[in-house]
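Hi all, posting the design record for the shared folder.

TITLE: backbone redesign
STEP: 1 of 1
STRUCTURE INPUT:
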């Protein structure tokens, strides 16, 4: 278990790639569950607990499906298990970093003090995009610029899917 955690830490530090993970359906399921849990804890813009859970499962499932499509188009679908595991695991680790930042945002009284927490969330979001690009570059054997564009595109598609299924709730009564 410690060895796997080190690999995920190395992935988010750009020192390891998906190829360093074992080919393990059980590990994929475990990282998927962690991805859902971290999204439930940190990305909960919905009022109903059921909607929060369903949105988190939808987001993680859509992400996994988009990864499979991208890998299949490039003829590398056999790499899906390790790629998805790497991104679910790395994403979960980075999502954990957002918990204290989200707490800081939720407890701020003035808009002036929102600057630092918002900036930290933005840095973590860009960090995940960089990690995603790093993993795509290795999984798809493509150049960095293309892997970055692909990462942005994948995130956009997942966002659109989630927003179509679970439109944002209005703050107005």
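Okay, here is what came back for every position:
SEQUENCE:
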């Amino acid at each position: 278990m410690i060895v796997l955690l080190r690999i995920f830490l190395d992935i988010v530090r750009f020192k390891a790639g998906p190829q360093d993970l074992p080919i393990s359906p059980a590990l994929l399921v475990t990282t998927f569950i962690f991805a859902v849990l971290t999204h439930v804890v940190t990305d909960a813009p919905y009022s109903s607990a059921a909607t929060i859970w369903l949105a988190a499962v939808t987001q993680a499932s859509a992400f996994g499906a988009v990864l499979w499509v991208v890998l299949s188009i490039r003829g590398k679908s056999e790499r899906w298990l390790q790629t998805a595991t790497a991104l679910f695991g790395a994403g979960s680790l980075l999502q954990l970093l957002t918990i204290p930042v989200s707490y800081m945002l939720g407890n701020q009284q003035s808009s002036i003090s929102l600057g630092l927490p918002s900036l930290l969330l933005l840095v973590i979001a860009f960090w995940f995009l960089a990690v995603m690009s790093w993993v795509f570059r290795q999984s798809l054997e493509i150049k960095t610029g293309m892997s970055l564009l692909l990462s942005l595109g994948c995130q956009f598609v997942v966002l659109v899917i989630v927003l179509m299924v679970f439109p944002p709730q209005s703050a107005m009564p």
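COMMENT: The two ends are 47 Å apart (CA to CA).
Let me know if anyone wants the other runs.
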